[in-house]
Batch of 4 targets.
Target 1
Amino acid sequence: LVDRELKGLPIPFVGTDNKKAIEGMIEDLLRKGCRKMALLTAKAVDAVSLEKRIEGFEEKCRRSQTEGQRWEGYLLDTIRSTIPDLQSPQSMEADAEKMEAFFAEHRDLDAVIAAEFDIAVLAERVCRRMGINVPEQMVIACFDGPVSAYGEYTYPHVRQDEEGIGKAAVQTLIRLIQGETIIERMYVESRVVNLD
């Protein structure tokens, strides 16, 4: 019901339009002058949110070629250390090595979008290890992130309206309790938060 879209089941869904959200992040990075971007993510197995982020990234990349926008998009979808059952120092180091090889292969990258905050943190560590200055040489952006005691974020990010999602989910639940049949998908707007 809330923020976990389940494919093939006729149940309501309330959450973020992840395709639209990543397109908004790409537009923001284009305004900053970024032209070589990569999406860093886990495979979209059983995670509709990741699937939609990947689809949105790839669709925006394809459309940009026909719309005359000049930017290139790359995908690294083999990150595993953020998957709960696979979290370990060994899997984190394996992912760091994958990122390092990917960044070395695509030396002209000027932005990465991490599908999750922890991937962004790891990407920054890899950049530091490789001597890549963040954000001067590589902008790192992500979805969500921890709220610090000071309310500051480290990266430009897509902020999902968790309160709005919760309110819409409660409204939907009330309607279901009252006997309505609801199978619609409701998307609550997200926004890109910059640190400029």
Target 2
Amino acid sequence: INQKFIQNGRKSSTGGKIEASHWHANGGKMKNERPSLLKKTQAGIRNGSITNPITVAIESENQGGFHSKISMRQHSFSSDQPFGFNGQNKGPKPSELVLAAVAACQETTWRIFAEDMGVEIDKIAVRLWGEQDLQGFMAMDEMVPAGFTKIWGEVLIESPASMETLLSLQSVVEKHCPALDDITRPVPVNLNVKKS
């Protein structure tokens, strides 16, 4: 993923070095006197107060055609295909949801590690594109993947931190972003068919 960093003109005293988040707000670094979410979660995992591993669960139920109602926790939304693919366009299509999950997870991971490392981020946005060869989905060529053949995008950040600091933070984020890991590492998937 290509990164576009937008510095907001304020001077940064980071000198390109990411340090632990034990600093007061100062030239690109922010300090919250309380432990960061990362540190609190790490401590909870170590002392057993936080359940680990966790299970993430969703449920999708087809509503007719390609329209599906997807539910998780207290939330629900629709997925559908566009009009041009015999859908009713009642929501994003599944492949768009894959990209959306990666984008939102990137933003979350940037925020988590920026807070812990004391790097101030004023705004962050992610734009992603994915290319899909429909020959795979439509069973025309077994050598063509059914899903994306490539994904690319931009991470747009407004921050007083130096470019060197943001690039160092990027390397940490890309290593620890769960949704990015999900789509770049083979994950065992087992779907059982049950007759209801």
Target 3
Amino acid sequence: LIAFLKHSGCSMTRLHFYKGRNMKKLFVAALLASLSVLSFAEGKIAVVNIQEALINTNVAQQRLEELETDSDFKRDVDEGKDLQKERLALIEKRQKDGAVMAPVELQQLDAKIKGKEADMEHLARKLQSAQQGLMQGLMLEMNEGMQKSMQEISKSEGIGLLLMANPQIVLYADTSFDITAKLTDKLNKLYKPKKK
């Protein structure tokens, strides 16, 4: 082909253009062929959101409910709500009276607002830490059953490649590719909530 193009008087620029276009077409064709062979040989591709599957289990819902009714947790939540109200009141005061306040008074008011915000952030981290600790404990407790369930689902659904439903890995997946709900169902059968 290259010899023919040279012989027919085609310039080197055109020659590189033809080579580039053909190489791109060849690469795309090879990629599509390899993907189709892979999908036939190895099965379907699916995604799973392990955290979502775990948090939607009956056991996780019961434990989160227990955490939210815990006296210390409730106290921290109530304190956070009070801090938010106090912060909003201070902001409102600054907006209403700020124009007539002395610079020293404005600095003191701003310091109080920042103090409330810092206290709120500390409480939010504390509450989030409690929830994350609970979820990590559940992850460890259910890990063996989760691995087994994912293998069973993959086998029964003919899945050859199972990916984490992570936006950095999977840009888009139709719901028909998502086995998260199926994993939750299997975990609900394996792990029962405690009777109250």
Target 4
Amino acid sequence: STAGVVDLTVGKGTASEVTIPGTLVLEDGANDTTGPLFKIINDRGSNNGVDGDDCGTIGFYANDDAQNSQAFAEIFAEVGTAAANDEKGNLELKVATETSGALVTGLKLEGTNVADKVNATIGAGASSVTTIAGDLKITGNDIKASDGTTSITTSGANATVAGKLTATGVQSQNVRVGETAAGEIDTSTGGLTLDS
């Protein structure tokens, strides 16, 4: 063991369950930069891990108005790829949805085959809404459509739209632009104004 470190194992076996009333506090009293670690381990009984193994789940439960115990939210981690030296993990944040109360993933983070690259999926379903308070800043240059093709490319203060730009609720006679010989929209003489 390490000086100043206390290892505590509560419960035994896969079906063990421990109830702790009140608040569980993890406190690191050492005068250093590190903090406490809450570690959840699935070691498969000391056997090799495989793709898709659950690393662990933290569930958040409360009673509904019929006094049924309901899972309202969940943090779920799994092994994406278990191959040694090529490990990739997935993390999902889930919440209960209306009618069925089933937990649905609203945020999913996925490790990739590229070092230091993480893919993120936000929302669930085509009608879900993602609200951003403040500005949206992208460090890449492309905004892609659902099929993966590039829809908008940004470069500095400029933006290029691939395909047709449609402004709904705007009458054509209220769109004032300058058109170049090549059929492009030239806003250098005064910009593009869309009047609703």
